[in-house]
Design goal:
Elements (H helix, E strand, L loop, with lengths): L1 E6 L2 H14 L6 E6 L10 H6 L7 E2 L9 H19 L3 E5 L3 H12 L4 E4 L11 H12 L2 E4 L2 H9 L7 E3 L3 H9 L5 H5 L6 E5 L3 H4 L2 H14 L4 E5 L2 H9 L3 H4 L4 E4 L4 H10 L2 E4 L2 H10 L3 E3 L7 H5 L3 E3 L4 H13 L14 H12 L10
Parallel strand pairs: 1-2, 1-4, 2-3, 4-5, 5-6, 6-7, 8-9, 8-11, 9-10, 11-12, 12-13
Helix pairs in contact: 1-7, 1-17, 3-4, 4-5, 10-16
This protein binds uridine-diphosphate-N-acetylglucosamine and uridine-5'-diphosphate (UDP).
Length: 369
């Protein structure tokens, strides 16, 4: 069976790696890899291929993102992927996560009547101001095989009227990747950091970084936290641009608040694992902090990863400076050390997904839905 796997942005690369690796032990599968080019800087794309031993993409759509609106970006992905899909004639398309490359892939598959599998289906923040929420809802409604990380995501899908026979609770592919690929690097040494003596920050949600006053407030909060412990902040390109445009960059990178470029996967995991706390608005980082045993403050009002909050490892603090500072102080006063949860068979999730696809367990994919 020929499967077209569509990826394009940083979190996609991490989610596809375990699947492509596990596919090597399924001889009936031919995996074709398409990179849309949504992310393209070395530190946003290529480094993940290196860290996660992902093979070179078979096809690169070179779509990019600089200066593109959502419609333009998704449209370009669709136009180019449609042509590629017509040539390759896959029997199945796989999309992962919730970025515009996921949505573009899903729409092309649906229009060309290619059975569609979505990995990380059923996650909902119930906040349609997030472009990702729209991508998730549309991708899920178009999918024939919906692979969810946990029961709660399955319940979300059932509430939206998705047939239960299409839903497979397989576990969390991000955690699967972490367990398989994590290894110590010299990142802390290179950055002059000592374990448990720094906070780690990632930020890139439009709601946090696209508005000048909001971003300014968050940066002030980080400065305040940096008066108690070093704060290291690998800056996403969107955030970098906004800090420059709003003229916040020069003031931001000083003293104990250290701004660096985006990190590779392994260095990033090493920083999360050894941090006193993580402050983030990323989906993936919330998950990874939980698995690695590091307390997390999420600078959002909602999360699609409710398990992290239920576990007590993650707290939603929103983006108001006073709330962020207060929550960080509470964590600083808390001496509890958490253990990483790196147990469990590392390639179980990917294998479960592939078994379902190989056996085409849900067969009536082309019947009316
Ligand atoms: C995208 C996803 C988001 C995901 C994030 C992961 C959508 C709608 N958003 O957001 O869900 O959490 O990726 O990181 O799909 N840029 C560069 N170099 C790059 C990539 C981007 O400079 O390699 C700059 C571009 O100027 C671009 C901006 O970052 O305009 C935003 O990129 P884009 O892919 O549109 O969205 P992200 O904010 O990265
Ligand atoms: N990540 C990384 N380097 C960084 C920041 C994040 O490798 O500088 C990794 C992070 O560990 C996680 C993934 O990128 O595995 C999450 O991507 P991102 O936060 O960009 O997107 P989201 O998960 O919010 O969609």
């Amino acid at each position: 069976m020929k499967i077209l796997n569509v990826i394009g942005a940083r979190p996609n690369f991490i989610k596809i790696a375990p699947l492509l690796k596990a596919a090597k032990s399924f001889p009936s599968l031919e995996m074709v890899l398409v990179h849309t080019g949504q992310h393209y800087d070395y530190n946003m794309s290529r480094i993940f291929f290196k860290d996660l031993s992902i093979p070179e993409p078979d096809i690169h759509l070179k779509v990019g993102s600089a200066g593109l609106g959502h419609g333009e970006q998704t449209g370009l992905i669709m136009e180019r992927l449609e042509e590629v899909s017509r040539q390759i004639k896959p029997e199945m398309m796989v999309v992962v996560g919730d970025v515009n490359s996921t949505l573009g892939g899903a729409l092309v598959a649906a229009k060309l009547q290619i059975p569609l599998a979505h990995i990380e289906a059923g996650l909902r923040s119930y906040d349609r101001r997030m472009p990702e929420e729209i991508n998730r809802v549309v991708t899920d409604v178009l999918s024939d095989y919906l692979f969810t990380p946990y029961q709660y995501a399955r319940q979300n899908l059932l509430k939206e009227g998705i047939a239960s026979k299409k839903i497979f609770v397989v576990g969390n592919i991000m955690a699967d990747a972490l367990k398989q690929y994590f290894r110590p690097t010299d990142a802390l040494h290179r950055l002059g950091l000592r374990p448990a003596c720094y906070a780690m920050v990632t930020l890139h949600r439009p709601v946090n970084v696209d508005d000048k006053n909001t971003l300014k407030g968050i940066m002030q909060a980080l400065k305040e936290i940096a008066s108690n412990l070093t704060v290291v902040f690998p800056v996403h390109p969107r955030t970098h641009q906004r800090l420059e445009t709003f003229r916040l960059m020069a003031k931001a990178d000083s003293g104990n608040l250290v701004l660096i470029g985006p990190l590779g996967y392994l260095d990033n995991l090493n920083l999360i694992k050894n941090a006193r706390m993580v402050l983030t608005d990323s989906g993936g980082v919330q998950q990874e902090a939980m698995v690695l045993g590091t307390p997390c403050l999420t600078l959002r009002e909602t999360t699609e990863w409710v398990d992290t909050v239920k576990s007590g490892m993650n707290k939603l603090v929103g983006n108001k400076p006073a709330d962020i500072i207060r929550a960080a102080k509470v964590l600083l006063g808390n001496q509890k050390i958490n253990e990483p949860r790196l147990t469990g068979a590392p390639d179980a999730v990917a294998r479960r997904i592939l078994k379902v696809l190989v056996e085409k367990r849900y067969k009536e994919t082309r019947s009316p839905r």
